[in-house]
Amino acid sequence: MAPPPSVTVIEDGRVAVPPPPPPASGDAAPPPQTTLFKLTALDAQWIPLPLIQRVLVFDGGEGRIPPFEDVVAALRASLAETVARLLPLAGRIVHLPETGEAAIDCSGRGVAGGGVRFVVAECGGADAARVARDADHDVALLEQLAPVLDADALPAETMAAQVTRLGGGGGGGVAVGVALHHAVADGRSVWRFIEAWAACCRGDDAWSAAPAPAFDRAAVALPDGEELARDVLRKYVPNLPVATVPKFLVKGRLQLSRRTFTVAAAQMLRLKQRIVVAGAGGLTPPSGFVALAALAWVSFVRSKHAAGAIAAGDEVYLFFFIDCRGRRAAFDPPVGEARPPRRGFFGTCISGCLATATARDLLGGGDGGLVAAARAVQEEVRRAAEDPLAGWEWMSLVGRIALSRLVNMSGSTRFPAYEAADFGWGSPSRTELVTMNHGGQVVLVAAKGGGVQASVSMKPEHMDKFKSDFESYLE
């Protein structure tokens, strides 16, 4: 196999984050801005885990992308403005040894007051059109298109950005990569950041007129919150300030096969109808998420059963997160619904869910496996709606099961991965999560032009069977 195209770094610099604007003449001075946000138990679990690294590829074939120097200048200036409003992204995660806590410290607005890391690079050997078109991922290339953060010890930066000029025979293009620490942002917050950055870059003033998001972690504190957060840190990162990511989570990533499936709106409708008909009235019509979760779970089990890796009597699992924002059963008042004005919470506000079945149930003939999977997922969604925080310590939940029999479903069918990421030269041709670390991980976002994009990582020996089963249920 030919080596991946090489990415050359042109500039590894920083973007200075401006201070808040001074009050207008005659206006009262605003209250002092909080610059230290203590991590909650929900945040703290993420300290020793891999970053969120996402890449957006813009194919230059349509000729809408400005000259690269102009792209870099626009992204750099708009990133500074955006991060100034999303203050935790300008900070560092720090250890507070006197209390045993960890916090996001924004007082320096970046490391030593130097701002946010911003990398400029080029890759003449990468064909942007091919990267955007191919269903199979060039994982080694994607990893080079996203920046990295040194998060093996605290203090650790919370985000970095990279813009890469792409060459190749398709007319070139641009890749925009971001890395964010998961203790600072969950998926919803990541897309809020990208949407705000893109709007600022294309000159949309509506984003700056909207109410600033809330960062205060007190809104998502569990009972005995400070002590609980300390307990989580002692359990999962007992050697702070050392916070090394376990090697088993990243060492095999390049050995996984990665593929993207696009499920059109019409296919989704047929899949949901197929599940309802096969359920013979004994199943609530599934949501798009439930239908896709059932499809991915069944295809995963069938592929691994065919290879002898899962026996019919084995228990199999599907793990996913729920967003606790807006759920009074989780927090009262609900997070993200503060009035006036209405403000969203920017941070990590998710809890874990685990659906369980036997492989035999999911291997049932006809569409019986789909029905069994959908019923198990629906039951877990119902349970989570009643008690959203039951799975808040999701690392303990996942740690009790065999990861080789687990599908890890992340993302959402509603994340606006293409619609929200127009920086002024059109929506990306492709966007992918780089950090897929588990064989059996499925990442969902809304697809370009409608439908859903599902990106899947599997061991190479299981991917062809997974693809065959997944696509056959969509026919």
Automatic annotation (TrEMBL):
It holds the Pfam family Transferase. GO terms for molecular function: hydroxycinnamoyltransferase activity. InterPro entries: CAT-like_dom_sf, Plant_metabolite_acyltrans. Residues 17-32 have a biased composition (Pro residues). Transmembrane segments: none annotated. Keywords: Acyltransferase, Transferase. Residues 1-32 are annotated as: Disordered. This is Anthocyanin 5-aromatic acyltransferase. It comes from Oryza rufipogon (Brownbeard rice). The lineage of its organism: Eukaryota, Viridiplantae, Streptophyta, Embryophyta, Tracheophyta.
